[in-house]
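Objective 1b. Sequence-to-structure analysis of D-2-hydroxyglutarate dehydrogenase, mitochondrial.
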Amino acid sequence: MDIEDIQIYVETPDSPRLDPTKQMPSWILLITFMGTRKLSSNHVQYFKQLLGSESAVIDGVSKDASADLEAFNCDWLRKYRGHTKLVLRPKSTEEVSKIVKYCNDNMLAVVPQGGNTGLVGGSIPVFDEIIVSTARMNSIRSFDEMSGILVADAGCILEVVDQYLAGRSHIFPLDLGAKGSCHLGGNVSTNAGGLRLLRYGSLHGNVLGVEVVVPDGTIVDELSTLRKNNTGYDLKQLFIGAEGTIGIITGVSILCPQRPQAVNVAYLGLESFGKAQLAFREAKRHLSEILSAFELMDGISQELVERVAKKKPPLEGKHPFYCLIETSGSNKEHDDEKLEKYLEFVLSNDIISDGVLAQDETQVQSLWSWREGIPECLNHWGGVYKYDVSIPLPELYQLVDDTRERLSSAGLIGDDESLPVVGVVGYGHMGDSNLHLNVPTRRFDRDVEKELEPFVYEWIQKRNGSISAEHGLGIAKKPFIGYSRSRKMLDMMKDIKKLYDPNGIMNPYKYI
Ligand code: FAD
Ligand code: 2HG
Ligand code: ZN
């Protein structure tokens, strides 16, 4: 895309609102002008004194620190680039509070950043906003083995916490491919869904409390460890999925289930999406309480993983669709028997064409890698257009077929290096009716984008689906929220933002 193709629309409090449900070029950059100020060396001096240690401040204002700032200014998809000149890495909630208060008093814009694995550009500054990273706030505060309630700093890495819990026979109720880097605060702020939502439910149910620094610097300590508390509005829910727009989460309290003693994984080959739906229906019937994941991968997703990761596929032949089923329970014999009966049933009734069952932990991990490894493998070429949608199950895959048809008719897909699109791929959390439509490309390309948007969003709107099932809005989906939410809901969201962040310093230009 050329720079002159980018249309910048500056949204001020008085300007007419763009209607995202009307056809609008997606390369428009929507900027809400908040009137925040520019960073000076005096400001940096204040933060250095406040945080003391050298490693707590990456200062690109008084010197060239571009190499150190690079990882904070660029997202996982290599699609969004910020221009921050200052990264602050506080160690405590009190430090976060003082930073935020100072920023609010001085009208300095802030972007909270956890593991920077978000997929909608939410963790990257649009201009030179200050990044407040939670990386040094990484202590587990308490864990009660009786109730399974964990209280931890927002900067704890998900996988580290899960390992801690494994040593205490518990499991974190969220698991996702980015677990080695993402932070609990980022997980809660994006209301991440992940691979086992089917079993453990959403963070809206599992998070019991949050500690948050709101934009005026006040520390709101709502780190409840109660499962039940019906005393008034449940305000913590506002911060779950708020993507850093009304405060910085500094601590979370969360209910963690007992770790299952028996885990089985099966990887199935199927001839159609219709059969995948039957396999899912039968999985619920045969496996009911032990079913912990039901994931869908189409044939092309697995071919691309094979091509990029250069490994031998789990099944001999090629199949149009694959499903990964996981069971988690407390009695190996009982679970094995149930799963074997299920596999017998789906094979003998021609629902699946082939299947393999993991025999040990290494094979469990290996089968999961064919599902979890998809996003990384698709990132192998120039870039990926990503749509994370929720639509009723019967039509879930139709979106992939229709998108493929559209891009083929436009002559944009192929093995020829001159064509932009490598393929149109569908996979996701079938058990939650959540599809990931991914279009890996050799380069971000305006012709591809014109075919995809608003086509995909209109397709979803017609089916009353959601344009963002689990990844959030960030900057990528902000202009399109109107496809899934009514004007009234948008107005109420804007009222909340104005109420808690009247100066507009928290993660500006994004979300709503
Ligand atoms: P970041 O990327 O740093 O930030 C995400 C957003 O939250 C930003 O808007 C940021 O400003 C805000 N934020 C971060 N920390 C805080 C805080 N402490 N307080 C307030 N706001 C904060 N997502 C899913 O839902 N399901 C998946 O299965 C899934 N799989 C993934 C697999 C891969 C390989 C990758 C790269 C990403 C995946 N994601 C998935 C997306 C991403 O990992 C999640 O959204 C994750 O929860 C983000 O956590 P983070 O710490 O990296 O947050
Ligand atoms: C997953 O389920 C993640 O693997 C990432 O949500 C999906 O990259 C994507 O589109
Ligand atoms: Zn996902």
